[in-house]
Design goal:
The protein is mainly alpha-helical. It has helices at 2-24, 26-46, 52-61, 63-83, 90-106, 112-124. Helices cover 76% and strands 0% of the residues.
Length: 139
């Protein structure tokens, strides 16, 4: 019996940060509320004296219902992501993709040497040989 109590206690401890975040974070509550409202709109539009075939046909053909479904799913995804503490990494991912493409171009055996030479002339100011001359003031 003690093992069951320990497992329940461990699971409760694991859930505590999520519950606290859900209670304290206004944006999570807003996303869940918006998803619930969208789902309620869908439900009120669909329910009535209809059978399953007309209901499925209406869902497949009615763009308002599809938009509400998309909105509900999107709001629930936002709430779930925020609840789990996930952050948007699209900027970081785009930067890493750009760096990967640049490295691929620079070190490609076919295009690499010409690209590096072009980049060197662009950054170095032409075909001049560059030599570093330190400050010879004797300081």
């Amino acid at each position: 019996m003690a093992k069951t109590k320990d497992r329940i206690s461990d699971r409760a401890d694991n859930l505590r940060p999520y519950v606290e975040r859900a209670v304290k974070d206004e944006e999570i509550r807003k996303n869940v509320r918006d998803a619930f409202d969208a789902a309620r709109e869908i439900y009120t539009e669909l329910m009535g004296p209809r059978g399953m075939v007309p209901l499925a046909t209406r869902v497949a053909s009615d763009e308002d219902i599809q938009d509400n479904l998309r909105r509900a799913v999107d709001d629930l995804r936002k709430a779930a992501g925020r609840l789990q503490g996930k952050q948007d990494h699209s900027g970081r991912n785009s930067f890493l993709l750009l760096v990967g493409v640049a490295i691929g171009i620079l070190f490609n055996p076919v295009t690499g040497p010409a690209t590096r030479e072009w980049l060197k002339s662009l950054l170095g100011g032409g075909d001049e040989d560059f030599t570093y001359q330190g400050n010879n003031t004797g300081a």
